[in-house]
Write a structure and sequence with these properties.
CATH topology of the largest domain: Alpha-lytic protease prodomain-like
CATH architecture of the largest domain: Up-down Bundle
Number of domains: 2
Helix content: 55-70%
Distance between the termini: 46 Å
Length: 333
């Protein structure tokens, strides 16, 4: 019989509380986008409208990008209890968010390039048809944004299991599977995977709004240059969104603690006092609303690791804690 050396006595499921709902809504948005895409391509070919055909293929790029989000949710859910992911699959959404940010940056670059070409060499615009297409696309994008935007930052879940590993003098191991967060302050933690899909929809909606404004003014005053000029403005806005998502998701993947994150300070304030000193502290995000921590401390009169663990039960964000205790004199030596 083969022994699974990676098996653990407990699971490390660190998915966001709304993981299933977000996954379901993402598939709905993909279906709406794909349906609109097919309708525009078919209608464009049937009625000889290149504007409809072009917008249909444009929507296909967003549907493909959002597929990254949906598949990430599926993969993370199916492998949430896979012991080979030693800290769970909660970060997979941030990996997908990072990929979505790159795709979003490429979309911004494409819009800017196409707009620059049209500034250099203006093309004839069928204003009425183009406005109708942009308005139809805007309606679909607003519905999709409503589906994804309500909770694209994600809420902290309170129903997860907490895993605390105690190491007294580096040898004694004791584990508990309790739910100690009775009293805690509410916290919000963004789901970078859903945020990526939301930004794709928002980017499409933004381009539709800007296009409608430019087309209306262009039809009234004959300003053909206004459409590509506003396209460049939209590309810059999308690029900024892409950078923000790239920065935030990348920070999670690299276990970076943001300057505004007060969780390390909360841990120190909860444990340190008297003869107790924290000598080493590592805090990182395991998934939306879930953080892990390794706390090494010294105490002149060492107590059971469970004693120090009890000092952290009010911190809702902690889902996986390892505590190492050493006598103060041993540390000094």
């Amino acid at each position: 019989m083969t022994e699974n050396r990676l098996s653990n006595p407990h699971h490390h499921v660190f998915l966001g509380r709304d993981h299933a709902r977000n996954e379901r809504r993402t598939w709905i948005v993909i279906a709406l986008t794909a349906g609109m895409m097919i309708a525009e391509i078919v209608a464009g070919n049937a009625f000889g409208s290149m504007a409809l055909v072009a917008d249909g293929w444009h929507m296909s790029t967003h549907a493909a990008a959002m597929l990254i989000t949906a598949l990430a949710y599926v993969y993370a859910r199916r492998n949430a209890r896979n012991p080979r992911f030693t800290f769970g699959t909660g970060k997979f959404g941030d990996l997908a968010g990072f990929a979505s940010a790159i795709v979003l940056a490429l979309v911004a670059l494409f819009i800017a390039w196409e707009s620059a070409l049209r500034l250099w060499s203006p093309v004839t615009i069928d204003f009425q048809q183009a406005i109708a297409v942009a308005a139809l696309g805007l309606v679909v994008n607003l519905v999709c944004a409503w589906l994804l935007g309500g909770d694209h930052h994600g809420h902290h879940g309170h129903g997860h299991a907490d895993h605390h590993h105690d190491h007294a003098n580096g040898h004694d191991h004791a584990e508990s599977h309790d739910h100690p967060h009775a009293d805690h302050k509410p916290a919000r933690h963004q789901d970078n995977n859903l945020r990526g899909a939301y930004l794709h929809v928002l980017a499409d909606a933004l381009t539709s709004v800007l296009a409608i404004a430019a087309l209306v003014l262009g039809s009234l005053y004959g300003w053909l240059w206004l459409d590509p000029a506003i396209g460049i403005v939209g590309a810059l806005v999308i690029a900024r969104w892409s950078f923000g998502l790239l920065r935030d998701s990348g920070a999670v993947l690299l276990d970076y603690v943001p300057a505004g994150e007060d969780l390390p300070d909360e841990i120190r304030h909860a444990i340190e006092g008297g003869d107790v000193r924290i000598t080493d502290l590592h805090v990182w995000q395991l998934g939306p609303g879930h953080h892990g921590a390794i706390v090494a401390l010294t105490d002149a009169s060492p107590k059971s690791p469970a004693f120090y663990r009890a000092q952290l039960t009010h911190i809702a964000e902690l889902s996986h804690v390892t505590i190492e205790v050493e006598p103060a004199e041993a540390q000094a030596a």
